[in-house]
Amino acid sequence: MTIVTVGLSHRITPPDVLEKLVVSAAQRSEMLARLHAEPGIDEVVVLSTCNRLEVYLDAKGPVEELTRTVAELVADQGDLPVGEILRTAQVQVDTAAAEHLFSVACGLESMAVGEEQIVAQLRTAARAAAEAGTTGHTVTALMDAALRVSKLARTETTISTAGISLARAGLDLANQYLGGLAGRTAVVVGTGTVGKLAARLLHEAGVERLGVASRSEAAAAKLAATVDGMPLQTADLTAILADADILVTATGAVVPVVLAEQVRAARAQAGDRPLFVLDLGMPRDVETAVGRLAGVNLVDIPALGSYLAERDVPDDIPRVREIVAAEVASYVDRQHAASATPVIAALHSQIKQLTEAELTRLNDRLPNLSEQERAETAATVNRIIRKVLHRPTVRAKEFAAGPDGPAYLEALRQLFDLNA
Fold it and tell me: Same domain for 352 and 289?
């Protein structure tokens, strides 16, 4: 079997393409089912975030064919030409796939280097695949290893504290644009993980009035209560924005929820009050035309990517990469060692069958042996077999854990004609 990852991310894929590839929970379930039904794909996990869509597979068959299969499904999902997906997809196999996932888990591949939200997103992806029945030992072990590496890196280095979330980066820009956040009026639309983070950061920054809007009135009220804010109705957005200095959106909607006409009407009432709009949605929550309105500064995820690319990276990145490299080597050794188990089991089973067959033949040829003599004979033969197999078993495990492990195991299969 082969571990393969087919990924599209902010590093290599245009933002307008990524925007079409965001996968909802329901869509992920469908994608998992369709991929798992493909011949040759035994296990699959789909990771979807605001700046990446990655598919992790345990599969057999040519990598090119597997890549094409994934690309066709992803293209169908985003209503894009399959060639567009193939041009920008990054395909990695086995050790390289593990190294990439470990780096992703540590925040090294994030737009906001070191951010911790990716950890929750990985857990969600793994849990969704488990609930859909599309994972088994191999990919589950890979995901578990990635989460352990992330915890190790975040414990032994300052990558998390040195990193910055997209929400925090956006509010840094808001602070610069408005000349401070304290005493301002802010509105957060969306009560998911990102919306909660933005609301908390705004509250900590000292905004004077903080409103929270959501499709769910109960969710808006619950979040507002935690940040000394007030729940708002999305239907009243135009009136709300007339008094706002900051608007943050993070809804997960598939179409814009803030329209240029709404903001234009609000601006007519706001006078010369500047408005900073932070769109953390992917797909976008705010129509791009909003950014062309007088007095409005619109910052979306692509703009945040440009801003973050100009920032100094955390000092601990080299140390995190060392941790990743060491843990990848350890993971590969464990996988090689585990791959020896079925081969060794097949060898022992074959020898056991031969032993039992020969003891049966001996008993048939010497029917006058007593039960004690038969038992002593069987015990002696089995003791010899165990001693003969002990050293090859130990050595097979040692060889399997090394870089040439697969070759040694294949030689063992061929030598003893093992079906494993």
Answer: no
